[in-house]
Amino acid sequence: MDVPTAIDGFKNIISSLNNENSLHFLNWVKENINDLIDKQIKVVDHNSDIVLESIREDIRTLLPLNGVTPTEKICTPSVGPNADCESTTTEHIDAFCFNDDDIDDLCDEGQMSRNYCTNCGSKSIQPLTFITHSASVKEIKYIFRHLLGDLRGKTVVDVGSRTGALLYGAYLMSEAPCIVGVEIDPTFCHIQQQMVTKYGMKDRIQVFQKDVQQCDSLIQQADVLILNNVFEFFMPLDVQKSIWNFLYQNVRKKGSYVVTVPSVQESLQSIELPLDLDSWLQEIPTGEVTARANLLLYGDPVTEDSELTQIHLYQVK
Question: Is there a contact between 194 and 169 (Cβ–Cβ < 8 Å)?
Fold first, then answer.
């Protein structure tokens, strides 16, 4: 039964009752509606969690442990907070495919280590630097179940969609009718297409293998634009500046949202690009939303281990 048919059925029930009984029935609906909604949300959330976990398992079989494809080029940042990420002591890991518990299991199995020896043969060790270029499952839930509102009728665009994690999250956890991934790496695009086909998501998800600077029309129409660790480790400084200038010119749909990791301010400061942010974007405070999400996802509203605080939300002026 579809929603319009259900609505007609509900109206028919009301019309079939006399005035007194219909009032009793409507009062029952009023008293129980919140419990019914909560129960249905739990069912929907449970189903989406199962599908998301299945997709994670599938993608793990298609990628190496570090989540870097043979066709992908990693550029170690020369400026900014991650400029100290030396290639020999930095582990790339896909947070969507491998959470902390997964990494612990891999370490226990000897497939991965969290530390490196600073003087081979001694006990002088230092922790490896772990870098992820994908959103974790908790971050995905935060973005689509807590941070963003009703996405019915909206277009969501993820720039640098990699494995498609945020695309699947948007499909399973929102009613956005148009979800688009823009990814330049052919291996990742192939993986996304495989998952979209296998899990029946073609009706709302599209994946374009393109440089984002070739997608001006798409970017101009986006209601939600997601930029998750998207440029710093993959583009030289001159290309990063070019892309940010492109976004500055084309992300102009008034009232649309931009979700970023790290903040726009940090990204621009690192590449020394002085765009006029005050006339372009307004950052939306997320403290209360983050506290609620932390409570549900971590069991503590102020957990220090939460990765949610690094997610920033802006609205185009």
Answer: no
Q: Residue 90: beta bridge partners?
A: 129
| pLDDT value of residue 274 | 93
DSSP 285: P
Round to whole Å and give the CA distance between 274 and 265. Answer: 10
Residue-wise pLDDT for 169-226, tens only, equals 999 999 999 999 999 999 999 999 999 999 999 999 999 999 999 999 999 999 999 9
Q: How many angstroms separate the CA atoms of 153 and 172, rounded?
A: 15
Look up the pTM and report it: 0.80
Strands 224-228 and 257-261: parallel
Q: Is 164 helix (H, G, I), strand (E, B) or coil?
A: coil
Amino acid at 86: E
* 42-77 pLDDT per residue, tens: 555 668 889 999 999 999 999 987 778 888 877 767
CA distance 76 to 90: 10
Helix axes 165-173 and 19-60, enclosed angle (nearest 10) = 170
Query: Could you tell me if 136 and 101 are in contact, meaning their C-beta atoms sit under 8 angstroms apart?
Result: no
Sequence ranges of the domains in the chain:
137-316
Q: Given the DSSP bridges, would you call strands 312-316 and 257-261 parallel, antiparallel or unpaired?
A: antiparallel
> DSSP alpha helices (H): ranges in the chain?
3-16, 19-60, 100-108, 137-141, 165-173, 186-198, 216-221, 237-250, 264-270, 287-298
Residue 186 CA neighbour count, 13 Å, CB half: 2
Do the beta carbons of residue 152 and residue 175 sit within 8 Å?
yes
What class does CATH assign to 137-316? alpha beta
pLDDT bucket at 89, cuts 50 / 70 / 90: low
Q: Is the peptide bond before 262 cis (omega within 30 degrees of 0)?
A: yes
* CB-CB contact of 205 with 131 (8 Å): no
Residues sharing a CB contact under 8 Å with residue 102, sequence separation 6 or more, in sequence order: none
